[in-house]
Automatic annotation (TrEMBL):
Enzyme Commission identifier(s): 1.1.1.82
Signal peptide: none
Record GO biological process: malate metabolic process
Cellular compartment(s): Plastid, Chloroplast
Gene Ontology molecular function, alphabetical: L-malate dehydrogenase (NADP+) activity
The protein's name: Malate dehydrogenase [NADP], chloroplastic
Keyword Zinc-finger: no
Length: 441
């Protein structure tokens, strides 16, 4: 796909300044809704530069800085075009651009997620976004392919796409970071090895966010083991509030709602107040005690309490494994949907009386859970990206015993990565039981 990139003399208009320069998604196919924002058409001159939007030089290139080679990220194709807008032509409805970083951007989960972000399904139909896509040297061509598809999709809200392999470049000024990229667990790999290998990735990404991201960046860790990876990331980003880090447990919540709805014979939108407590592992605790169906306690609607205590948790934990058995691969689309749900829960007000689950820092929690962990708990939001822990929840002996088991596991994982959190020498005592969720091996 070829396109023209036109160069014009600099304007001296008093209305133009750095704050009024916005990158627009496409010069050639902007909707009429946005055309009135543009200056008159740029004149074609003999010096007009013609470039191909998909070319080899779109990938990060090495540049010299103080004699050292440094990886530089590049805007991609049509997203490199910049238009000047007159200050008085900017409408009141125009929202400030949101910068969103996604790591593992060439993977299957991202392949579903990025198009939901670009469509406005997450941040709203009037919110322009910029996508900053982080990959590895091995995946750079795949990243170019992703950028090409985003180009061809003509999303009017997608203003910029940057691709790169250096988190210190890609994370520059981002306000949201969705960290999906992590090493999968190979045959014979011990949990302790996976914690160390992926922990190093998230330690480095935490340092990068700490140095170059927006000071109030919101971080959602998806790469597993996500609770402990989120802890490592936040410990390496001391300038960012610890409260801003989340571990994704929303897919577990969605699966739990599905199982309760199936058992009760209702549609899943009738299930509310669902909490996943603890670690994203087989020690997680789907909470049927506080959940509601049609506004009633679950135990009043589902009278098979043996199923609730035994079959329910197991069905949630084994859902991913069953999907692999049926389809031959782990979940990607449903994971992307759960990421969308997790973010929307933070940027839209929580319905009155309801809550949602997310893995967050335990300092100051009202449940008696050990501080210094990332633990899935019930939260509410006013829609401003922040949240508060729900205080009006019931915890009986059954629930407390199971929460304590997940808490103990996360404490063991924390000891295993102490060398990555600045808390001393690592010591692994994870025990013989493998608690990784099916589908994540």
């Amino acid at each position: 796909m070829a396109m023209a990139e036109l160069s014009t003399p600099k304007t001296t208009s008093p209305f133009l300044n750095s704050s009024s320069r916005l990158r627009l998604s496409s010069k050639l196919h902007l909707s009429d809704h946005f055309r009135h924002l543009l200056l008159p058409p740029l004149p074609t001159t003999p010096n007009s530069k013609i470039s191909c939007s998909v070319s080899q030089n779109q990938a990060p290139v090495a540049v010299q800085e103080n004699g050292l080679a440094k990886t530089r990220k590049e805007c991609y194709g049509v997203f490199c075009l910049t238009y000047d807008l007159k200050a008085e032509e900017q409408t009141k409805s125009w929202k400030k651009l949101i910068n969103i970083a996604v790591s593992g951007a060439a993977g299957m989960i991202s392949n579903h997620l990025l198009f939901k972000l670009a469509s406005g399904a997450v941040f709203g139909p009037d919110q322009p976004i910029a996508l900053k896509l982080l990959g590895s040297e091995r995946s750079i061509q795949a990243l170019e392919g992703v950028a090409m598809e985003l180009e061809d999709s003509l999303f009017p809200l997608l203003r910029e796409v940057d691709i790169g392999t250096d988190p210190y470049e890609v994370f520059q000024d981002v306000e949201w970071a969705i960290l999906i990229g992590a090493k999968p667990r190979g045959p014979g790999m011990e949990r302790a090895d996976l914690l160390d290998i992926n922990g190093q990735i998230f330690a480095e990404q935490g340092k990068a966010l700490n140095k170059v991201a927006s000071p109030d960046v919101k971080v959602l860790v998806v790469g597993n083991p996500c609770n402990t990876n989120a802890l490592i990331c936040l410990k390496n980003a001391p300038n960012i509030p610890a409260k801003n880090f989340h571990a994704l447990t929303r897919l577990d919540e969605n699966r739990a709602k599905c199982q309760l709805a199936l058992k009760a014979g209702v549609f899943y939108d009738k299930v509310s107040n669902m909490t996943i407590w603890g670690n994203h592992s087989t020690t997680q605790v789907p909470d049927f005690l506080n959940a509601r169906i049609n506004g009633l306690p679950v135990k009043e609607v589902i009278t098979d309490h043996k199923w609730l205590e035994e079959g329910f948790t197991e069905s949630v934990q084994k859902r991913g494994g069953l999907l692999i058995q049926k389809w031959g691969r782990s979940s990607a689309a449903s994971t992307a949907v759960s990421i969308v749900d997790a973010i929307k829960s933070l940027v839209t007000p929580t319905p009155e009386g309801d809550w949602f689950s997310t893995g967050v820092y335990t300092d100051g929690n009202p449940y008696g859970i050990e501080e210094g962990l990332v633990f899935s708990m019930p939260c509410r939001s006013k829609g401003d990206g922040d949240y508060e822990l729900v205080k009006d929840v019931e915890i009986d002996d059954y629930l407390r015993k199971r929460i304590a088991k997940s808490e103990a596991e996360l404490l063991a994982e924390k000891r295993c990565v102490a060398h990555l959190t600045g808390e001393g020498i690592a010591y692994c005592d994870l025990g013989p039981v493998d608690t990784m969720l099916p589908g994540e091996v």
